[in-house]
Amino acid sequence: MSTDAHPYRGYWILWLILLAVTVIMILIEGANLPLGLLAAILLVGSAIKATLIIFYYMHLKFEHMSLILTVLVGLFVTAILMFVLPAIDGYHVLANKLTS
Amino acid sequence: MSQTAIAQADWGGGASPFGVTWQKMMMWFFIVTDALLFAGLLVSYGVIRITAGAWPAQGEVFSLTYIAAMTFVLISSSATMACAVAAAERGERKMVTLCLWLTILGGFGFLGMQAYEWSVFIHEGGGLAANPWGPPTFSQFFFIITGFHGFHVLTGVTVLLVVAIRQLMGRYSAAGVENAGLYWHFVDLVWVFVFALFYLI
Questions:
Q1: Does A84 lie in the same domain as A46?
Q2: Taking CB atoms and an 8 Å cutoff, what residues of chain A touch B175?
Q3: Which of A8, A43, A84 is the best residue to mutate to test the B interface, defined by the most B CB atoms within 10 Å of its own CB?
Q4: Which of these, A15, B94, B97, B162, could form a disulfide with B79 (CB 3.0-4.6 Å)?
């Protein structure tokens, strides 16, 4: 990530990438996409930003595999389960509310 | 080969399985649990929003340009924090001082912008029980989610101030700066999801 001549350059390149992804996400938001598609694209964009921050700003990439797995499995698997299951439930409640 | 030797060959982690100090390990564990707290808040926001059916258009309630500027400030402060951690590792004291105080400036900037956002929101009639744009749950989630995040930023600025003042007194370690940095990047990480899920979708 860093060389001795330019020890901080990598962090500022990553800063530019993070800003670029943010701007792209804002532009996509303004494109009037269907809500489900928009949510999926923006979640992927957020996941890319989160992975870059965790791996390079927080240096997780350079830790032992045991710590990497503890953090990633703990975070992503639980978070994905938490997001997917209640969303299905939410649509179920909405459908029942509209038909009743 | 004795049993211990076999165990050591298979798994060299008996003494230090994660290969980090206990401070760093506990910071990571804290970050995982705290992230799940925010995940819980955002999930409940999603479920309530889906079941509500109708929801205010965020573009009419907030200025997206303003929120983007807040995001810019926080991401930039994360970049300066990363530089502070790298400088501390390399023992460049002046660079550590500069980057730490720039990060603190970014933190205060973000907090100030959020305070202004809240005051505009309240001034336009938004409250815990009232929402001129639609269901009141919208403004409840606004205050709870951005309030929780803002409190984390305030905590982070406090931690950074302690580290920065100690650093000026010459009492700091690279590991200490790194741990404060881990927390600060986490605050930025949470904002990535709050920004996408609450303001953009």
A1: no
A2: none
A3: A8
A4: A15
